[in-house]
Write a structure and sequence with these properties.
2 copies of one chain form a homodimer.
Chain A (H helix, E strand, L loop, with lengths): L1 E3 L8 E5 L3 H9 L4 E7 H7 L11 E3 L8 H13 L6 E7 L1 H13 L5 E6 L4 H4 L7 E3 L2 E5 L7 E5 L8 H18 L1 H10 L10 H17 L14 H11 L3 H20 L6 H10 L12 H9 L9 E9 L2 E8 H14 L1
Parallel strand pairs in A: 2-9, 3-4, 3-5, 5-6, 6-9
Antiparallel strand pairs in A: 1-2, 7-8, 10-11
Bound molecules: nicotinamide-adenine-dinucleotide (NAD) (2 copies).
The site of one nicotinamide-adenine-dinucleotide has 30 residues of chain B, from α2, α4, α5, β8 and α6.
Chain lengths: ~350, ~350
């Protein structure tokens, strides 16, 4: 399966399937004088004798957020330069969303930008590898330093997902679910039916592809997030605050944020757009810790949400809510109203 | 004097004159929610009670290359974030080329890019502040990490130049001279006449403006240096090697590189495009250490030039030479030929 981006220029292809990595990579590397591989250390350990046996002399990045520090940034760029990287070389970044963000930022800045390919290896990275955002973390928050730098291709070999720990699968599934909500009610229903006995990989491919297409729709019409790209933040405003406070995997926190989004959307519209009982049951069945929402502190959450880089006002908090499945809108909820919504949600649990 | 860039989009104005800073800045800041000033420490010390007395609570950067380290990059971005920078804030970078490069890179990456204004304070920065290149240094070479990020404006208040030490003036003048060569013979003659009694600021304004216009011509037609932007490297290939080896100010080394360029252009064309005696006398009169060229080691220079990030071949070295004043071409000179040119030049001195 190949999906082509729809920008005005600098388009690229997203290849999604099982067992495509090696052939696909070689199609691209042929036109470069040399290739540098940046590989997540856990992925390297799991696949160095298998899927990645063709990878020579990789630069190994610590898996996860550790690769998104300033020190790691220095290490990656200096190592690329030590190895003599030139403008006609290619960088291939293999790993989860964190590796993709860090490796992408290094590729974007070394020699003022060289070509790179994203090879996402987690379910969540179906999301993070699309859209050209690269980043490292600040002590003041995640992803606060970075640039936009489109890859030359994304090669998403779903074989990698087979070794994902269950909590990483659930975390990635949070974004798959979000993309279904952003699409339409039919997609949400089909996804819930397909996963009624639990989240497993077998049935995931069509939903991953649909998720990628949905994300691409938003990012191609608004790369720099001045307009509708914001809608991709569905569930993320409270989600980020919960992720930060409880050190919960990103996509799991997003599911909790989506549940609050459903609650608030119903309240603002004064009608039941979302059947809260149904979704609550579904999320709990799959192991998302919705009960955590019952323990959050209103004031603390509101402070954390105020720090979100997308929030520019202090008295009100910007939220993406829904008029209906597939129909987002952006609104500012003022502090007292927001506090009320959070309290009501807590009571309802 | 205002010069407008000629890109397809994201154009900006370069304001050049005496005493324009404050009024000009306020014209821009009005449309931002807040402004953050990054100021070179030497410039701050000299002007905090004068030209910069309106600047509140600046972030002070070490002057010179010290501000282009990874540590300084971390310090600048983290300080901006600590001060609560938001996407609708403006960064104003005040200082020489080094401060401009470092501050520009911070503005380009914090929150994935915020608007910024360059306020160059050295003669050399008439060059470095135009073109949108930002950078920090690697242990493997200067300017190896960075991005392209166009400013919203360049405000070049020539009053700052009055406190420049003589060697910095001479260094900046090297690039003024290069821009005259890139323009035409008439401009070179006028510049040489105007400076026949030494380089001073009084007569510099028209040549600075002409230099900016010349640089802009090259960068707007080729922002990412795949074609004619390369011509701006006139004199820089050997210049960079000399700068590195002898720790000479950039523009002074460039003058030595320009002299070699003239020599090699004559040789390659087999005619006297440039009157070498005339230029040698002129450069020596102004204090450029041409005698250093007599002591360079061929092999060492060739190794250093091979490391230049613009050189992608190993057996030959890419050079910008001239068919005539204002008429550049790019050529690769193979190793044995290059060695011969350097030896001949040494003997001629
Ligand atoms: N750029 C964007 O647009 C964007 C969007 C969303 C999230 N993100 C970023 O993505 C990151 C989260 O991504 P993630 O969830 O993939 O996290 P991750 O990269 O930290 O990976 C999670 C863990 O799984 C391991 N892993 C990766 N692939 C594996 C595999 N195939 N088998 C077994 N283990 C594997 C990793 O080593 C790591 O320990 C965050 O840093 C977030 O900020 C970026
Ligand atoms: N981005 C580009 O396109 C580009 C082009 C050329 C050069 N550069 C970079 O520019 C830098 C060189 O620029 P530079 O020569 O301006 O060096 P600089 O910024 O290091 O300044 C030189 C010295 O002069 C001091 N200074 C600055 N303004 C002064 C003033 N008005 N009065 C007195 N002292 C003052 C500084 O504190 C410093 O000590 C290098 O880092 C080079 O890589 C960038």
């Amino acid at each position: 399966m190949e999906i082509r981006t729809g920008y005005a220029d600098y388009n690229y292809t997203i290849h999604v399937d099982y067992g495509i990595l090696k052939d696909c990579i070689f199609r691209y590397t042929a036109s470069y004088n040399s290739v540098h591989f940046l590989v997540d250390q856990n992925v390297h350990a799991l696949y160095k004798d298998g899927l990645l046996s063709f990878v020579q002399n990789p630069i190994i990045l610590e898996g996860g957020e550790a690769s998104k520090s300033f020190d790691a940034f220095k290490h990656i760029t200096e190592t690329l330069l030590e190895r003599g990287i030139q403008r006609n070389h290619l960088v291939v970044v293999i790993g989860g969303g964190a590796t993709g963000d860090a490796g992408g930022f290094a590729a974007a800045t070394v020699l003022r930008g060289v070509d790179y390919i994203q090879v996402p290896t987690t379910l969540l990275a179906h999301d993070s590898s699309i859209g050209g955002k690269t980043a490292i973390n600040s002590t003041h928050g995640k992803n606060l330093i970075g640039v936009f730098h489109r890859p030359k291709a994304v090669i998403y070999d779903l074989t990698f997902l087979e070794t994902l720990p269950q909590h990483e699968l659930l975390s990635g599934f949070g974004e798959v679910f979000k993309h279904a909500l952003l699409k339409d009610e039919k997609t949400v229903k089909r996804l819930m039916d397909a996963t009624s006995n639990g989240v497993s990989l077998d049935m995931m491919k069509p939903f991953i592809i649909s998720g990628i297409e949905t994300k691409m729709h938003y990012v191609t019409s608004d790369e720099k997030e001045s307009g509708i790209r914001k809608y991709l933040n569905l569930g993320h405003t409270l989600g980020h605050a919960i992720e930060y406070k409880y050190k919960m995997p990103h996509g799991m926190a997003v599911v909790l944020g989506l549940y609050f989004m459903m609650f608030a959307s119903n309240e603002e519209a004064d009608r039941n757009i979302f059947d809260l009982d149904l979704f609550r049951q579904y999320f709990e069945l799959h192991g998302y810790p919705l009960e955590q929402l019952g323990t959050i502190d209103e004031a603390e959450m509101m402070t954390l949400m105020g720090k979100d880089k997308k929030n520019q006002s202090t008295d009100a908090t910007g939220f993406v809510l829904m008029h209906d499945f597939g129909q987002c809108y952006f609104t500012e909820i003022d502090s007292s109203q927001l506090k009320k919504y959070i309290s009501q949600l807590k009571e309802s649990l």
